[in-house]
């Protein structure tokens, strides 16, 4: 079962927000209460190889508490030892595989790695809506080697909500986009421009749109390969009926550190990094959101 346990953790490795873990419980409970053996796959963060602070053992511990039964943390996500742990499972057991992104083969959707992951299961359940758009080994590759592939209850819930929001939204329909990368949101951005009354763009991707419009973004995160697409989106919004909102002020720092000194500016100085939207932008975004009939984030 592919779940999305990319959850925030503190410096001591404790789960800071278990919302995503809680959201997966109905599907896991359905499996174990019906005598199935739940083998869970997830990523955590963006490790470059094995990273001790990004192991999934704390997640397995928190899941054990929420599920009311022991969830064993596997030593790896593939290999002979994992195969032995899977073979030792009994009906109703739950096993958390180690972070699949410890292997570069995961994001490369490597066939051999996908086959090794698939060897642990008979039925594939995708309940990781937040990762389902990426063709990785644990989301797409494994489906080539398992005959029965289904969606989990969380995936079903998200898709039903998305369908309703897109097909019959209460107006005004406001879409909020964020995250670091523009490249994995190209198709949905175009679609939202056709459907939404307002599109709010924040997060790291906002700087790519600002840069494409000629605004100084300093050393902020940029998806440079998508500057032309961002300019196209801005042009389409100007020519259409959709209001597109971008940040007009920013919280910035000279370095991306927890104790860095920050300032609020209208235009980001050269060498400075945009960290968040400023108070003026918060107010503008809040007014639009408060008036919405449907919000899709």
From TrEMBL:
GO biological process, one term: gluconeogenesis
Molecular function per GO: ADP binding; ATP binding; phosphoglycerate kinase activity
Enzyme Commission number(s): 2.7.2.3
InterPro entries according to UniProt: Phosphoglycerate_kinase, Phosphoglycerate_kinase_N, Phosphoglycerate_kinase_sf
Gene Ontology, cellular component aspect: cytosol
Pathway the protein contributes to: Carbohydrate degradation; glycolysis; pyruvate from D-glyceraldehyde 3-phosphate: step 2/5
Keyword match Cell wall biogenesis/degradation: no
Substrates-to-products reaction catalysed: (2R)-3-phosphoglycerate + ATP = (2R)-3-phospho-glyceroyl phosphate + ADP
Any Pfam family hit: PGK
Alphabetized UniProt keyword annotations: ATP-binding, Cytoplasm, Glycolysis, Kinase, Nucleotide-binding, Transferase
Family recorded in the similarity comment: Belongs to the phosphoglycerate kinase family.
Subunit structure: Monomer.
PANTHER family reported for this sequence: PHOSPHOGLYCERATE KINASE (PTHR11406), PHOSPHOGLYCERATE KINASE 1, CHLOROPLASTIC-RELATED (PTHR11406:SF23)
Record protein name field: phosphoglycerate kinase
Organism: marine metagenome
